[in-house]
Design a protein that fits this description.
136 residues, mainly alpha, 2 domains
Length: 136
């Protein structure tokens, strides 16, 4: 992730992302767990993983809510959840270009990508092929 985003800024971004997800209907129990995870990891690089997970949730919102969330986070913090999505897409493209999944972490990244129907069909088909080859 970007080294220019300090933990304090990222913590605030995560808390606002959680609030947006709560307003979109995420259960209070999950929201509480997310807030606790952010607080526990506020000074740790694990916070970037939490932010990435929150960004996935925000990306899955219906278009009007997703767009409003992106605008709100960008206006308040200077970056939106697309920062995290672009990083994931970059990872997937590097794996697709290589033509081989090397480990379970890469398998998970490609699997998540392939399961998202908002991506280009040709890229998803390529991802599916790599996933099938990895399992053999």
């Amino acid at each position: 992730m970007s080294s220019s985003i300090d933990y304090k800024t990222l913590t605030a971004w995560c808390q606002d992302a959680i609030t947006i997800l709560a307003l979109a209907g995420v259960s209070e129990r999950i929201v509480g767990m997310q807030r606790a995870a952010v607080a526990r990891n506020a000074e740790s690089s694990a916070l970037y993983e939490i932010a990435d997970s929150l960004a996935e949730g925000l990306s899955a919102l219906p278009a009007p809510k997703r767009e409003a969330a992106a605008r709100e986070l960008l206006a308040k913090h200077g970056f939106g959840f697309d920062l995290f999505a672009n990083k994931r897409l970059g990872k997937v493209k590097a794996i697709l270009k290589r033509g081989k999944i090397r480990n379970e972490a890469e398998f998970e990244v490609v699997s998540d990508f392939a399961g998202d129907t908002t991506h280009d069909d040709l890229l998803r088909e390529a991802a599916d092929s790599l996933l099938a080859a990895y399992r053999v």
